[in-house]
């Protein structure tokens, strides 16, 4: 115990020590909340002029961007089959890979799927040192040294594998073009293998990205990232841009070591040996990391951080209801375009107005317990809400 | 002791930031110049003291009676961020302290904090930005204001007037 505590305080001290200009960490934990919180701690505490590489792999989870809507981005009904009370819509049979966590990160960008075949890399650096492509280029150099000659950085700052059939001339040092690059818009489309997002603060920039090395779940990723509610929701905030994905086909440890070497050689000019360390679950005992971890796991952050949106419920051919949600609270529940209301709709409205979505885990139960007259109309409303606006319980691991 | 350490840290960050500032914001924009402000002078509604700028590229107008402040991001910052796709505004009635992140701007997959240089209570937010985030790119120092704040004190940390700020952003 005492030894563990000493090791932890030495992590915080090393991280913040201005002498450690180049630092490199690998996490043993597969907890997405913890890894994101260690990363956030690095962003906040590393010395202003330092550059820090952090590598981690999460258990299966979906990570959405800071300003995204989980109801439009994620097929929430299949995340956690066990706790959904058996009311999973039949058209989305759970793919059966077990529990999948849902996480909202602090950086921008779109929704991504993580699993044990994916390595996340992150770089924290001074703003003055930062461009959106710089570190994706570093990763492409590392990949090419491992024989992945089709890897390049695309115009969205992501890494793709070119799928062109014929080989053309390309400068091997050009990280934005390969011999297999085809002209924009022509087939075959490159496969995305790494997606980037950024968090920028006063003086520091964080660039983090996924890297699909050997995911066994490629075929079901689209099922998780396709929401049945999407056609019925008008949302502010950030929409994902979906791309065909592929596996790079490398071993995790080989990629990690190569990337650490590439990073070290990029900063060898700093002269001093880089700090290279392993972190893990015990780092949750560091108060700042614990704080970030708890924040990420609040219902407020997960659900109520969602930008304003309106869900339209089509009760019948004649009646549709617009449900407006602002800061996670239902602000309107009104028949569309001046259609006339019904007693049941009025009753449901009186119950759901000003209600926080994050506290409703079962719409049938919720409406019934508020003595909504149970008729065909109220059952349809509950079904639609459960299908399009479920709030699955977050894991308590 | 801890407080002094963190103050020193901030000072150090500010210094290194000032030196390296031209690429504070990523990509394209280091060379672009700031659009002239004069055209907007008559559009300002309430009488205000001279506009102040922070090294984080926020601007702040304080009313003549010193009771309210209007906050936004500078033309330079808006150009540097690129196309803004979402602005997370503070909530009305929120109490804020100088140095707090009171919101965030998202552009090109990047979330950037909006920092307030002054303490107070948020009295109004520019909800047009919720619907049309891109309008902050069009007129960041006018119609694209972010929040109005009821204040009692002065801004904390370094602030600059227009000329000083322009020099700050042009300095190589």
UniProtKB/TrEMBL annotation, chain A:
GO MF: lipoyltransferase activity
Region (Disordered) residue spans: 162-186
Cellular compartments per GO CC: mitochondrion
One Pfam family linked to the record: LplA-B_cat
Protein name: Putative lipoate-protein ligase A
Origin superkingdom: Eukaryota
InterPro entries given in the database record: aa-tRNA-synth_II/BPL/LPL (IPR045864), BPL_LPL_catalytic (IPR004143), LipoylTrfase_LipoateP_Ligase (IPR004562)
Domain BPL/LPL catalytic positions: 47-271
GO biological process terms held by the UniProt record: protein lipoylation
Pathway: Protein modification; protein lipoylation via exogenous pathway; protein N(6)-(lipoyl)lysine from lipoate: step 2/2
Family: Belongs to the LplA family.
Role summary: Catalyzes both the ATP-dependent activation of exogenously supplied lipoate to lipoyl-AMP and the transfer of the activated lipoyl onto the lipoyl domains of lipoate-dependent enzymes.
Compositionally biased residues, Basic and acidic residues: 162-177
Automatic annotation (TrEMBL), chain B:
BP-aspect Gene Ontology terms: glycine decarboxylation via glycine cleavage system; protein lipoylation
SUPFAM superfamilies: Single hybrid motif
Record-annotated Lipoyl-binding domain positions: 68-150
Keyword Mitochondrion on entry: yes
Cofactor note: Binds 1 lipoyl cofactor covalently.
UniProt-annotated location(s): Mitochondrion
One term under GO cellular component: glycine cleavage complex
Pfam family, one: GCV_H
Keyword presence, Transit peptide: yes
Keywords in alphabetical order: Lipoyl, Mitochondrion, Transit peptide
Modification type N6-lipoyllysine: residues: 109
Cofactor entry: (R)-lipoate
Family per record: Belongs to the GcvH family.
Assembly, per entry: The glycine cleavage system is composed of four proteins: P, T, L and H.
Functional description taken from the UniProt entry: The H protein shuttles the methylamine group of glycine from the P protein to the T protein.
Protein name: Glycine cleavage system H protein
């Amino acid at each position: 115990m005492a030894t563990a505590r000493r090791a932890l305080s030495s992590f915080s001290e090393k991280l913040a020590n201005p002498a450690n200009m180049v630092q490199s960490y690998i996490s043993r934990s597969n907890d997405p909340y913890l890894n994101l919180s260690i990363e956030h701690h690095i962003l906040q505490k590393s010395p202003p002029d330092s550059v820090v590489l952090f590598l981690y792999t999460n258990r299966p989870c979906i990570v959405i961007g800071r300003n995204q809507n989980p109801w439009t981005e994620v097929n929430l009904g299949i995340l956690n089959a066990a706790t959904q009370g058996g009311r999973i819509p039949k058209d989305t049979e759970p793919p059966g890979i077990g529990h999948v966590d849902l996480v909202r990160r602090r950086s921008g960008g779109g929704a991504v799927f993580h699993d044990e075949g994916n390595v996340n890399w992150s770089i924290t650096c001074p703003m003055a040192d930062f461009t959106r492509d710089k570190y994706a280029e570093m990763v492409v150099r590392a990949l090419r040294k491992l024989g992945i000659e089709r890897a390049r950085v695309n115009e969205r700052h992501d890494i793709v594998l070119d799928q062109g059939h014929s080989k053309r001339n390309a400068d091997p040092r050009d990280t934005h073009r390969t011999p297999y690059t085809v002209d924009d818009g022509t087939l075959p489309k490159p496969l995305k293998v790494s997606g980037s997002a950024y968090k920028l603060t006063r003086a520091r920039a964080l660039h983090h990205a996924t890297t699909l090395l050997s995911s066994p779940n490629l075929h079901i990723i689209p099922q998780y990232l396709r929401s049945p509610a999407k056609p019925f929701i008008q949302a502010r905030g950030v929409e994902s841009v979906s791309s065909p994905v592929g596996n790079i086909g490398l071993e995790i440890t080989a990629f990690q070591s190569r990337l650490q070497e590439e990073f070290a050689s990029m900063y060898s000019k700093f002269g001093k040996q880089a700090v290279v360390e392993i972190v893990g679950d015990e780092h949750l005992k560091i108060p700042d990391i614990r704080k970030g971890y708890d924040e990420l796991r609040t219902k407020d952050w997960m659900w109520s951080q969602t930008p304003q949106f309106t869900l339209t419920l089509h009760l019948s051919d004649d009646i549709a209801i617009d449900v407006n949600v602002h800061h996670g609270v239902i602000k309107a529940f009104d028949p569309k375009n001046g259609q006339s209301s019904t007693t049941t709709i009025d009753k449901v409205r009186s119950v759901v107005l000003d209600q926080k979505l994050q506290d409703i885990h079962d719409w049938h139960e919720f409406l019934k317990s508020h003595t909504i007259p149970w008729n065909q109309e109220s059952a349809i409303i509950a079904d639609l809400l459960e299908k399009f606006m479920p709030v699955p319980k977050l894991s308590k691991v | 002791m801890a407080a002094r350490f963190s103050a020193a840290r901030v000072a150090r960050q500010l210094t290194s930031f000032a030196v390296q500032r031209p690429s504070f914001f990523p990509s394209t924009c280091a060379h672009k110049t700031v659009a002239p402000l004069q055209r907007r002078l008559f559009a300002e509604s309430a009488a205000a003291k001279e506009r102040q700028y922070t090294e984080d590229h926020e601007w702040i107008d304080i009313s003549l009676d010193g009771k309210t402040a209007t906050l936004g991001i500078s033309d330079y910052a808006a150009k540097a961020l690129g196309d803004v796709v979402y602005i997370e505004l503070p909530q009305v009635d929120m109490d804020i302290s100088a140095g707090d992140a009171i919101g965030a701007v998202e552009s090109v997959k990047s979330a950037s904090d909006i920092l307030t240089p002054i303490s107070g209570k948020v009295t109004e937010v520019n909800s047009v930005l919720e619907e049309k985030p891109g309008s902050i790119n069009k007129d960041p120092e006018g119609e694209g204001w972010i929040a109005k704040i009821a204040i009692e004190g002065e801004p904390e940390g370094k602030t600059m007037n227009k000329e000083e700020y322009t020099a700050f952003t042009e300095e190589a």
